[in-house]
Structure formats: structure tokens, C-alpha cells
Design brief:
Elements: H1 15-28, E1 34-35, H2 47-58, H3 71-85, E2 94-97, H4 99-111, E3 117-122, H5 127-134, E4 138-143, H6 154-160, E5 165-171, H7 183-194, E6 200-204, H8 220-223, E7 231-236, E8 249-252, H9 255-266, H10 274-285, H11 289-309, E9 325-329, H12 347-358, E10 360-361, E11 363-364, E12 373-377, H13 382-397
Parallel strand pairs: 1-10, 3-4, 3-5, 5-6, 6-7
Antiparallel strand pairs: 2-8, 7-8, 9-12, 11-12
Helix pairs in contact: 2-10, 3-10, 4-5, 4-9, 6-7, 11-13, 12-13
The protein binds pyridoxal-5'-phosphate.
């Protein structure tokens, strides 16, 4: 009898985490690699937040906390949801987990039975389909086509909903495309969900604060309050507060669902670190002015990369509303030959060629469910980004 569960054959390791491992390996072997694969800000955690973590250790906040998170943190989250999203939640409608990733995992394990469906717009964050599969569910994909700015159309959402649909996933701004929905666009998607009473919305608002050109972020429960009782709003401190390593995400939703997710968590991690929780209280309640400053820096980098990559032969790239990713069409490179005589057959071949020929690490669109594209993260210095874009231009020019 094999030792590994059959369940495991449904999923694969995260391709973006795998790329990070490969970049570290190549760098350790002395190769000059620019890694544009990682999904984390290159800024430090703000000093006041670090100090709050240190204080928590000194003050002995080092024991188990309540499973859904400390009351202080859940109150801070309710304050944030009210202040920034005009949403009213009480602490018992909130759960804190080890990153947004565990929040989503808890939600799927708590709600999906074998064969239940989750509508996942493409291109999607790599972990959504695998998490759904691991929980016994079935992802149903809806294409967010490039000509629609990588957003899904209401009629395509309507067509994807069936009797087994439990969740519709919304991720705005999106990883990997950076696309964000306006209030009107979200309202049109909410109107579809409203017609199907058995369907809930799971909105992943992780990139809420990383938006550009004055874009106004909105979240479904605020756009359509009539859906609040069947919406789970997921967020976290990883991206906005540059706290990826602290492992802290949270969700707000109906009490019964939060209670079920808390039971799931009680039998896995129990809770995230007490120290991270204390730091997150400071992140959410402390000064917020650096958020706009970080977004300003990201916007400059976005503009730099969009301009340079649109000059690369065979590449095409729009200007996304948020996050720190570009989802670039490499359709014009497909079918061409590398200087070694190999043919670029798909976007995986293309990113392999970029890594091998120029030492630039990017992620193939196949990992996000929409080809032929590749994703770069521009959470890197201007100097690194300029050099990476020059190398990509050179690699494209060398294709015959
Ligand atoms: N949701 C999206 C869209 C993400 O891109 C990520 C991280 O890359 C997460 C959730 C998970 O974030 P966390 O680090 O809080 O687990």
C-alpha cells in the first residue's frame, strides 16, 4: 500500500514557491540571477510594527491566545473594516490565521463537500485551485480575458454557476494580473450572485492598499450589502504592511462560518504567533501614511516596467490598476527559435529561455491558468528592474 494519500495526487507544489527555491539555488551556485518571481514587497516591516513585536516578547505575550485571535487584534480588524471599507463586523465575526493562505484553506475545508464547485476567475493566484482540490471541491474556471483587462464578464460568471456552486472567488487587485474591479463592475458581478441564493462570495482583498492612479478600492460586501450575509472578506497584513514572514491574515463573515473555520483551525495550527498578533494590532491601529508612499514607489516601478517591456519584440503589456505584478503576453515569441535552435512552444519554454539565456526569473502563465503569458513581480529596486527589462528585451531580440 503506498504511504501517500490519493488526495495528494490531485495537487502540485506552489510553482511560485518552487521558482523562489530555484532562484536561491542558482544564486548559491554563483549565477547572476534577477528574481522577479517572488510575491512579496521588498520594503521592511515598519519600525513601529517591529517594536510592537519586540515589546510583546518582553511583556510575556508568548503564550497560547484565543484560537480565532486575540480580542485586541479582532477589535483592531473590526476598526479597520469600519474605517476603510464601511463594513460593520463584531469580533466574533472575525478569524485570524497564519496568513491569508490559511484563512482560505480553513474556509474551503469548512465548507466544501466532495464535488462542490468554486468559481475561480483566470488568471488566478496559483494556490486557489489546489486548495479547492485538496478540500475535495472542484474549481470551475472563468476566463478573465486580456481584452477585458483580465476581468471576468457577468455573463461568463452566470454561465459558470450551477447547482453545486458554493463560492465565487473575487481577487481584486489580482495576483497575477494586477487588474482591479471598479464599484460598477463589482456590482454587476454581485447582481449575478444575488440571483443564486446558494452561492457565496469569497473576496481576497490582500492587495487593497496597492492601487494606482487614484483608483478607488471597493469590496463586494460594501458594494452590495444585501450579500454581506453570504460573503467572506479575506485580507491580511502580508502585502500592505510588508509582513509576509509574520504569517498573519484574517477574514470577516457570518458568525456560523467563522465558528466553523475556527474549529478547523483548532485542529491544525491553533492560531498564528502571539507576537505576530501583537505586531498586527500596531500595524492596523498605528500610522497609515506609509501605505500611500509605498504605493507611489510601486506605481513608478510599474510605469518603468510597462514602458520597457512594451519595447521588447513580441511582448505586450497593459497598465494594471494595482498589486505589484505585470501579466505580459508573450504570444509574439511563440513559435520563434532561440539562438540554440530550440523552438519556443509555450510560455513555460519562454520563461525557461529567459532564465537560461539572461538569468531573469519569471513565472509562466500556465501556472495561473491563462496562456501564453508570463508574470513578473516588480517588488524590486529600480536598478534591478531596469536591468531585468533590458535583459528581457535582449532575449526577445535574439529570437528568430
Ligand atoms: N491571496 C493572494 C492573492 C496572494 O497573492 C497571496 C500571497 O501571495 C495570499 C493570498 C496569501 O498571503 P499570506 O502571505 O498572507 O498567506
Amino acid at each position: 500500500m503506498p504511504i501517500l494519500a490519493e488526495r495528494l495526487s490531485r495537487i502540485k507544489p506552489s510553482p511560485t514557491n518552487a521558482l523562489t527555491g530555484k532562484v536561491l539555488e542558482l544564486k548559491a551556485a554563483g549565477r547572476d540571477i534577477i528574481g522577479l518571481g517572488a510575491g512579496e514587497p521588498d520594503f521592511e516591516t515598519p519600525e513601529n510594527v517591529k517594536q510592537a513585536g519586540i515589546r510583546a516578547i518582553r511583556d510575556g505575550e508568548t503564550r497560547y491566545t484565543a484560537i480565532p485571535g486575540t480580542t485586541a487584534l479582532r477589535e483592531a480588524i473590526c476598526g479597520k473594516l469600519k474605517r476603510e471599507n464601511s463594513l460593520d463586523y463584531a469580533p466574533d465575526e472575525v478569524i485570524v490565521s497564519c496568513g491569508g493562505k490559511q484563512v482560505l484553506y480553513n474556509a474551503f475545508v469548512a465548507t466544501l463537500d466532495e464535488g462542490d464547485e468554486v468559481v475561480v476567475p483566470t488568471p488566478y493566484w496559483v494556490s486557489y485551485p489546489d486548495m479547492v482540490l485538496l478540500a475535495g471541491g472542484t474549481p470551475v474556471f472563468v476566463d478573465g480575458r486580456e481584452e477585458q483587462g483580465f476581468r471576468i464578464a457577468p455573463e461568463d460568471l452566470e454561465a459558470a454557476i450551477g447547482p453545486r456552486t458554493k463560492w465565487v472567488l473575487i481577487n481584486s487587485p489580482s495576483n497575477p494580473s494586477g487588474a482591479a474591479y471598479t464599484a460598477d463592475e463589482l456590482a454587476a458581478l454581485c447582481a449575478v450572485v444575488r440571483r443564486h441564493e446558494h452561492v457565496w462570495i469569497l473576496t481576497d482583498d490582500m492587495y487593497e492598499h496597492i492601487v494606482y492612479d487614484g483608483f478607488s478600492f471597493v469590496t463586494p460586501a460594501a458594494v452590495d450589502p444585501s450579500l454581506k450575509h453570504r460573503t467572506l472578506t479575506v485580507n491580511g497584513v502580508s502585502k500592505a504592511y510588508c509582513m509576509t514572514g509574520w504569517r498573519l491574515g484574517y477574514a470577516a463573515g457570518p458568525k456560523e462560518l467563522i465558528r466553523a473555520m475556527t474549529v478547523v483551525q483548532s485542529q491544525s495550527s491553533t492560531h498564528t504567533s502571539s507576537i505576530s498578533q501583537a505586531a498586527a494590532v500596531e500595524a492596523l491601529n498605528g500610522p497609515q501614511d506609509f501605505l500611500a508612499e509605498n504605493a507611489r514607489v510601486f506605481q513608478q516601478r510599474r510605469d518603468l516596467c510597462v514602458a520597457m517591456l512594451n519595447q521588447a519584440r513580441g511582448l505586450r503589456c497593459g497598465t494594471p490598476e494595482g498589486a505589484f505584478y505585470l501579466y505580459i503576453s508573450c504570444a509574439g515569441a511563440i513559435g520563434r527559435k532561440t539562438p540554440d535552435g530550440a523552438t519556443i512552444g509555450d510560455d513555460t519554454d519562454f520563461v525557461t529561455y529567459l532564465l537560461e539565456s539572461e538569468g531573469v526569473a519569471a513565472v509562466q502563465g500556465a501556472a495561473f491558468g491563462l496562456s501564453p503569458y508570463f508574470r513578473i513581480s516588480y517588488a524590486a529596486s529600480n536598478a534591478e528592474l531596469e536591468e531585468a527589462c533590458r535583459r528581457i528585451q535582449r532575449a526577445c531580440a535574439a529570437l528568430a
